[in-house]
Amino acid sequence: MNPNNSNGTPAANGKYILQADKLNVHYGNFHAVRDVSINFERNKITALIGPSGCGKSTVLRSLNRMNDLVDTARIDGHVRFYGKNLYDPDVDAAEVRRRIGMVFQKPNPFPKSIYDNIAWGVRVNGVRSNMDDIVEQALRGAALWDEVKDKLKQSGLSLSGGQQQRLCIARAIAIRPDIILMDEPASALDPIATLRIEELMTELVKDYTIVIVTHNMQQAARVSDYTAFFSVTPDRTGYLEEFGQTNQIFTSPQSQITEDYITGRFG
Amino acid sequence: MASQGLDGGRPLNEVFTGRATRSLRRARIVDRFATGLMWAAALMLVAVLFAVIASLLIAGIPAFSPEFLFTPGTFTNPGIGPQIWCTFYVLFLTLLIVVPIGTGAAVYMSEYARPGKLTNIIRFSTESLASVPSIVYGVFGSIVFLVMMGLGYSILSGSLTLALLNLPLMVRVAEDAIRSVPGSYREASLALAGSKWETTRKVVLPAALPGLLTAIVLTAGRIIGETAPLILTMGTTISPNAYYSLNPLSTGETLAVHIWVIKIIGLPGVPNSQAAADGSAAVLLLMVLVINIFVAYFNTRLERRLRGAAPPPRAGGSKKVGT
């Protein structure tokens, strides 16, 4: 194993697949996130909640190096995936994202056919054979196969919003990641489509580890095993206020701020 | 009484007639007037376009005949076959240079260049080049391509000059097209472990294709219509041995230049050279129209294939959508 992770973190015990350790994010001079440490357990859903501007999406995007795309972003601290720090100089960002996929707030299928939307990422990762099977498996995995099996050549953008989001989930699982990050995946969807995404998540978590950012506290309470509550300092720096099992956070929060937030007194 | 003010403490109006107040009526009149003005402006545009097309076709089509369209001009026949050929040839050669270089520069500017001094210099240069008069490019081309490179008056000199002239336009319009591809496509591709180049080539450029075709059409229109720089670099006659030749080193004459020559010098021996000019103008117009209609048709089909029945996504939309 990597010598860098011999500093007491439980890398080898296998319970925690991903560990943020004293994560700090700056955008230029702006300190966006301060000292966030969270252990993400394998095959569990961890929800990141908190008021707007608390840095929960920033933290999520730091977990698969999507913040690399922001020129001014600077990340300090460690994010360990199987014990290996994702920000080590010898780590390739594309390889990180192959193992840690992402689903975005607004459904963003490519302007390509349903089939090609899924095949694209698979081909990029060097797989060219059995594509029909891979596409079918991915669409079944995202509970979309029955709705689209007769129109795989149609544009992904011709689907409804909820179907588009499930197509994006299918696209993400087609390349067999270990972790799926979801950035408010249902916030642009109606309640029925939202429910289907939530049902899908509870299916997917049997094979994947899921980290979800959500504004919707009922959603966090319904689907997640663990909840991380973020808050924000007066100078707008986000930090982790409380982390724990979801039912503990929602029934007996340790922090007054958490309690005020989940009971609707602010935010 | 009822329409005196909107203060909070007033009594209920109690009467509702449904009639608009005076200020509402006035607003409605202004509204109609403004709508009428906009409508008239738009109508004028269409009318001008229609008038141009109709008058040129009415004047030009009587000159059409197989001899006129497909044979070289002689002392008795004002044929423009070689000019039509030369126009397509110059168009092809110029686009062959402009499209790859222009698209490449546009990709660099929109996808790779970081904001900074160098990028600003490149952008400023492009903007400046776009506003240099075409005759200046003609003079430049005659110095560099004709004299320094020794290409002489030739189709190649003319095409190279037109390529320089049109690169700024191509870069600018192509850059706009690439920039208008939603950032969410790039994010999606990178999140699937796509590299920057794979993202650019297989996601961004295909999505920008309709806009890139528009850039090519705009450029093509300018190439077909250009005269001054071609007169200085390609000459004003078809080389006697090159009526339908592929030799890029022969002299040439596009339709636009041909019209200019007829109007200024006339066609020796041909009694009614005005008719030949009108006919040439009609052909030129039809060429531009056909290219435009063809690309518009192709673009519509392409958009439908890329996006399905749904309208194109709008950036930043948070509309609620169902299953």
Could you please describe the fold and organization of this structure?
The complex is a heterodimer of chains A (267) and B (323). Chain A is α/β, with parallel strands linked by helices and 267 residues long. Chain A contains 10 helices and 10 strands. In chain A, a hairpin with a 5-residue loop joins strand 9 and strand 10 (238-245). In chain A, helix 3 runs parallel beside helix 6 (161-174). Chain A is globular and about 55 Å long. Chain A starts with 15 loop residues before the first strand and ends in a 5-residue tail after the last helix. The model of chain A is unreliable at 1-12 (pLDDT under 50). Chain B is mainly alpha-helical. Chain B has helices at 22-60, 66-70, 81-112, 117-130, 134-148, 155-179, 183-191, 196-225, 228-233, 255-264, 273-307. The two termini of chain B are 52 Å apart. Classes of the chains: A alpha/beta (267), B mainly alpha (323). The interface between A and B is large, with 42 and 33 residues.
Compact overview of the structure:
The complex is a heterodimer of chains A (267) and B (323). Chain A has 267 residues and is an alpha/beta fold. In chain A, 33% of the residues lie in helices and 26% in strands.
Could you please say which CATH topology of chain A applies here? Rossmann fold
CATH superfamily of chain B: MetI-like
How many individual domains of chain A? 1
CATH topological fold name of chain B: MetI-like fold
Rg of chain A, alpha carbons: 19 Å
Tally of strands of chain B: 0
**Using only CA atoms, what is the Rg of chain B?**
27 Å
Please write the CATH class name of chain A. Alpha Beta
| Helix coverage percent of chain A | 25-40%
**Span of the ends, CA to CA of chain B:** 52 Å
Low-confidence stretches of chain B: 310-323
Structural class of chain A: alpha/beta
Top-tier CATH class of chain B: Mainly Alpha
Count of beta strands of chain A: 10
What overall form of chain B do the CA principal axes indicate? Answer: extended
Mean pLDDT of chain A: 90
Question: Biggest sheet of chain A, strands in spatial order?
Answer: 5-4-1-2-10-9-3-8-7-6
CATH architecture of chain B: Orthogonal Bundle
